[in-house]
Design a protein that fits this description.
The chain is α/β, with parallel strands linked by helices. It is built from 14 helices and ten strands. Helix 5 crosses helix 6 and helix 6 runs parallel beside helix 7.
Length: 336
């Protein structure tokens, strides 16, 4: 699977492909990005438009996609192009991977979160009973197309959503990568193709070592145990929080645990936490949902042998996965 920064490879793929083409969008990307996309890749598409938002990343929405493919008599040789953010990449990839036991799909991410994370790596899935990505498969897209001008359609909130994953990638990489991000004062200008490419390549190098997450790829869950728990509690109680916002808060907890359990440098942790505090607000409702968050942590799919397993850092660029943690340890640092 390859990542490209222009549409030429997709144009060539469409010219060679003999099956039907389907373009999956949500109402936002259909409005903001559809015309731009077809101007670069003109073809005879059957658009499928679904409702946006994490709350719609479920089996019911997936069934609508399957139904649209069935109604259009899509065969095994069909191609589904996912034009949208992380939610759309996840559900579109899952729908394609399971329709007729798998049809080809291409991801064209339109958000920073999708560009640096969700569109690449093969993780697809849907939420179930408020649990994040609890049903899914690992299936790689045929290709990923990164078109950074799409980011100009996004509000700052959604750029910050993706920037949290860039922080995570930098923490997994090097002190230099972290320092480069911490010098950025205004996250609304994060449309820098060089920074985005660097972040994506950090993930790409990790994924290629372990495509099916049997070992080293688990480090990409840095900050996600608590992040997913926050999202679970928010969805269950009708609150709204973006994935990256939750991950940023999860990274704060991870850094505090790393200081305690892994001897991570305390001053470095404080500097990163201060940066996160500057750019990401802690919701006022969060403190009332700690018990529900802990319930979600216990159900986390990364746990084994009924033990909570987390990714922590010995130092920047030195992650450890499957580190056992107790609920008491988590509760002691859960002051976000």
């Amino acid at each position: 699977m390859q990542v490209f920064s222009n549409f030429s490879p997709l144009q060539h793929l469409l010219q060679r492909h003999h099956g039907k083409f389907f373009l999956l969008c949500d109402e936002n990307t259909y409005r903001e990005c559809y015309d731009v996309f077809i101007s670069h890749c003109p073809a005879q598409y059957s658009p499928i438009v679904i409702a946006s938002g994490e709350e719609n990343k479920d089996i019911e929405t997936c069934a609508k996609i399957w139904q649209a493919l069935l109604d259009a008599e899509a065969g095994k040789d069909a191609l589904l192009i996912n034009l949208g953010g992380g939610v759309l990449s996840d559900i579109g990839g899952f729908a394609a991977a399971t329709y007729k036991r798998g049809i080809a799909f291409v991801n064209v991410p339109t958000t920073l979160l999708a560009m640096v994370d969700a569109a690449y790596g093969g993780k697809t899935g849907v939420n179930f009973k408020h649990y994040k990505n609890i049903v899914g498969v690992i299936e790689q897209p045929a290709m990923v197309i990164i078109h950074t001008p799409f980011l100009k359609t996004l509000p700052t909130k959604h750029l910050k959503n993706g920037f949290a994953e860039m922080i995570k990638h930098a923490l997994l990489s090097s002190a230099e990568a972290v320092d480069e991000l911490l010098t950025i004062n205004h996250l609304h200008v994060i449309d820098n193709e060089v920074l985005i490419t660097k972040s994506l390549f950090i993930k790409q190098n990790i994924v290629e070592q372990d495509p099916r997450e049997n070992g080293p790829r688990k480090v990409l869950n840095l900050g996600h145990t608590i992040g997913h728990a926050i999202e679970y509690a928010a969805m269950k109680n009708g609150y709204e929080i973006l994935h990256g916002e939750a991950v940023a808060l999860g990274l704060k907890v991870m850094l505090q645990l790393s200081v305690i359990k892994m001897n991570f440098d305390e001053s470095t942790a404080a500097r990163i936490i201060n940066f996160i505090d500057k750019h990401y607000e802690t919701p006022v409702w969060l403190s009332s949902l700690h018990s529900e968050m802990m319930n979600a942590v216990v159900q986390d799919k990364k746990n084994t042998n009924q033990q909570i397993r987390m990714v922590l850092l010995k130092a920047i660029g030195q992650p450890e996965y499957d580190v056992p943690c107790t609920l008491r340890e988590l509760e002691n640092v859960l002051n976000i």
